[in-house]
Every structure is written in C-alpha cells, then in structure tokens.
Design a protein that fits this description.
112 residues; TIM Barrel; 40% helix; globular; alpha/beta
C-alpha cells in the first residue's frame, strides 16, 4: 500500500541493505488515488507505471526490477501497456499480469 514514491523509497532502503533485486506488488486491494482499501483487484495502470519509473530511478541499474500485479490487468491491451513501460525500464519480468481466465488473444491480434 502507499504511493509510487513509497515503493521507490522501500526499494532504495533495501538496496542499501545489499539486496540486488526488487519486486513491485502494485496496488491490489488498494486505491492509491483515494488511499483506501478496495474490494477485488482493480487496475491502476498509470500508478503501476509510475511506481516502476520511480523505483528504477531510485535504484538505477544496480537492482533487478520485477513486477507482480497479481492478475489486476483486465485485458491483454492493458497488460501490454504496462508491460511495454516495464520493458523500457529494463524490468526482468512481469509475473501474472492478468487473470488466466481473461486471456483475450483477439485483442492482441487486432480482432474485436
């Protein structure tokens, strides 16, 4: 829970302790805009990307960056939107970006 800056501060604190990797578990069951708990696993695409950017900025390339949104992205398009930003940030992996029962390959392939 918290804000994107909180993830960056947490990662930097662990870098100083000697950790070499950091996995972001972004904002599920939490709305960073209202700072309140929410049911389910809502998507917060912009907040997730901002957390990734701030963490990468805080730790430079000295740490392996990973993300595990725990199935919060509700379409392939949204998973790709965040995944492309994570790729730009040199993230090692994005684990479990969307619920397995929601795999919609037709979106990725340009279908309706």
């Amino acid at each position: 829970m918290g804000q994107p800056r909180d993830y960056a501060d947490h990662a930097l604190a662990h870098k100083t302790l000697g950790y070499t990797a950091y996995k972001i578990h972004p904002f599920y069951y939490w709305d960073p805009a209202t700072r309140t708990a929410v049911p389910g696993r809502p998507s917060h695409l912009d907040w997730d990307r901002e957390a990734g950017r701030l963490v990468r900025e805080a730790v430079d390339d000295d740490m392996v960056l990973m993300s595990d949104p725990w199935g919060t992205y509700h379409s392939v398009a949204n998973a790709l939107r965040v995944g492309r930003e994570l790729e730009r940030l040199r993230s090692y992996l994005c684990e479990h970006p969307m619920p397995e029962h929601r795999v919609e390959t037709n979106i990725m392939l340009g279908g309706s």
